[in-house]
């Protein structure tokens, strides 16, 4: 036969009155044994302790009472054992171990009953407050989980916005660079061509234009290529002829060396420097090699002219 906590407390009060001569209105305290004492208890003693605590039938009574004794003695307990002890005391366990532990300690601290008239109220209040503590903790945990989910969603949204912003800026920069290149190309096309260049272009045949442009592109490399269309080849050749203009503004003949920007040029490209071993008693000449024709030229510093070797 099992008894409720209320019935157990009533029985304890009357037992206390009988043994100690105490009045039924005086306080009755349920003393929780130490874990070591619980381990030595026989089944009769365990049942008596369980009844004093108001514990209904459980599968492993000794394990539940040991957990309660450990909590009363401030010893560490397993989370699952703690939940089992709360359930045995007709309390609803929550998800957080700390809240469950606090609820059980509060329950045990209120086992002292002030008087007969207050017995029922004290028992009900202890149970209700313990249940409220567990329920409040569960609500707080749900609220915390919701806040964490909201924070994670905000972080993901911020990350997405940041990526979109970077992609947008990158696209904007690319568009700006493209517009700049187009503007520079238009400016180059709009630049006024000197009469000397116009005259040289008119003097060249389409065959010569094609031959020279092809040779130039072959030697110039990808960055310096002159894009041209055979149908409008004079436009491409005009660009090439503009590169043949020397320091004095004259158009150098194709295949001849000339001075431009204080350097030696030939066929629109700066010449490669050639190292020459000097003759005995003489100074080595300054020599350059045309990238297009591979012809070498010596430079005369006195009159700033080149002589083909």
Give a summary of the structure in a few sentences.
The protein has 309 residues and is an alpha+beta fold. The protein is 57% helix and 8% strand. The protein has 2 domains: 139 residues, no CATH class; 112 residues, no CATH class.
Task: Walk me through what this model shows.
There is one protein chain. With 309 residues, this protein is α+β, with helices and mostly antiparallel strands. The chain has two domains: 139 residues, no CATH class; 112 residues, no CATH class. Helix content is 57%, strand content 8%. The strands form two sheets. Strands 4-5-6-7 form a four-stranded antiparallel sheet, with no helix packed on it. A three-stranded antiparallel sheet has the order 1-2-3, with no helix packed on it. The longest helix is centred in the middle third of the chain and has 75 residues. About 10% of the residues have low confidence.
């Amino acid at each position: 036969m099992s008894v409720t906590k209320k019935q157990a407390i009533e029985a304890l009060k009357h037992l206390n009155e009988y043994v100690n001569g105490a009045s039924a209105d005086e306080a009755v305290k349920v003393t929780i044994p130490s874990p070591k004492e619980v381990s030595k208890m026989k089944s009769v003693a365990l049942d008596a302790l369980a009844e004093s605590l108001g514990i209904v039938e459980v599968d492993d009574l000794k394990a539940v009472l040991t957990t309660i004794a450990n909590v009363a003695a401030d010893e560490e307990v397993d989370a699952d054992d703690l939940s089992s002890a709360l359930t045995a005391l007709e309390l609803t366990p929550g998800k957080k171990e700390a809240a469950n532990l606090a609820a059980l300690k509060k329950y045990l601290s209120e086992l002292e009953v002030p008087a007969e008239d207050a017995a029922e109220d004290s028992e009900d209040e202890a149970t209700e407050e313990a249940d409220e503590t567990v329920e409040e903790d569960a609500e707080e945990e749900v609220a915390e989980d919701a806040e964490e989910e909201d924070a994670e969603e905000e972080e993901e949204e911020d990350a997405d916005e940041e990526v979109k912003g970077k992609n947008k800026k990158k696209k904007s920069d690319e568009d700006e660079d493209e517009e700049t290149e187009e503007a520079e190309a238009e400016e180059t096309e709009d630049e006024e061509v000197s009469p000397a260049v116009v005259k040289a272009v008119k003097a060249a045949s389409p065959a010569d234009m094609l031959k020279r442009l092809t040779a130039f592109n072959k030697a110039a490399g990808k960055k310096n290529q002159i894009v041209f269309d055979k149908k409008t080849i004079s436009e491409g050749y005009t660009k090439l002829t503009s590169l043949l203009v020397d320091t004095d503004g004259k158009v150098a003949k194709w295949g001849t060396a000339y001075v431009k920007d204080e350097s030696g040029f030939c066929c629109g490209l700066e010449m490669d420097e050639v190292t020459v071993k000097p003759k005995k008693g003489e100074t080595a000449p300054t020599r350059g090699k045309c990238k297009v024709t591979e012809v070498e030229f010596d430079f005369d510093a006195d009159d700033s002219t080149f002589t083909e070797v």
